[in-house]
Please model this.
Amino acid sequence: MITVNARSIAGPDETFKSMALQRRDVGPGDVLIDIAYCGICHTDVSRARGEFGQTHYPLVPGHEIAGTVSAVGSEVRKFAVGDRVGVGCLVDSCRECDYCRGGMEPYCRNGHVRTYNCLDRTGQYTQGGYSEQIVVDEGYVVRIPDGIPLKSAAPLLCAGITLYSPLRHWKAGPGVKVAIIGFGGLGHVGVPISAALGAHTTVFDLTMDKKADAYRRGADDYRLSTDPAIFTDFAGAFDLILSTVPANLDYDAFLELLALDGTFVNLGVPKKRISLDVFSLLNNRRSLAGTLVGSIEETQEMLDFCARNGITSEVEVVAADEIDAAYERVAAGDVRYRFVIDIATMATG
Model:
């Protein structure tokens, strides 16, 4: 076993503490990664605080992992020591079902294995990237292009692919009008991706204080999501709306913004069940959809696309001792736009 320094939380009302984490030895198909940076995702906060699904404690969160390869197994062919690599939201799947064979591992019929808080095939709970090293099968590791700094690459492994996947699936591009609800950790990477794909991109957000940032990152329009005028000004205007916010919206009102055959995609997870009038779907033959993160292949495609188009996430780097404070700020929406932990500080404190 490999022993590494990590930060874990023991319960929903606890704070993060140092711990010695045991990682499995490097197997024939495994890659050992020295983690340089790990992003803090809103999902991390929800999981750690027991607000989202069932949490197994002690918990080491983190599914936005960027670092370098320090060892490889005897059968590894994709990576070598020194390569810049990343790990996102999943580290395994059955590899045998039709979805896995078709390169859609997040939808594995037998259940994919998440990077943390998930039973793996040995019956152990996975632990994430708030740690110095991680061992991952090479099939679930992606290469980070040289043009993307590791600290800026980390959030792309969740936020980036979460936006890239639906934008590609619903064919955002020239002539397509896209609206992104929320200009935060997800939206701030979704906007430049949508713009780089060639789509006309509008942002709806709760405040106007991010307007300049949104335009700088490629938005064509920016409006308050609470302004009633948007529902007349943009009636039937959009082909695709992506909601990045974990809030219950007025779905009937926002669906009215879709053009014929338009799609509203939920990326954020509201705390309550959603409600809508079915006529909001029947009119204009609209669709209401959801999506998980993209596949491993699509994640690599996203990173290469971002490197070609100069797209990175905007981050604030924090030390391991600052995780609790960062969680409070994430919960309050007080970050522009993603926190990233400097893993070199993991052994202190």
Summary: The longest helix spans residues 296-309. The chain has a mean pLDDT of 96. The chain is about 25% helix and 25% strand. The CA atoms of residues 117 and 126 lie 6 Å apart.
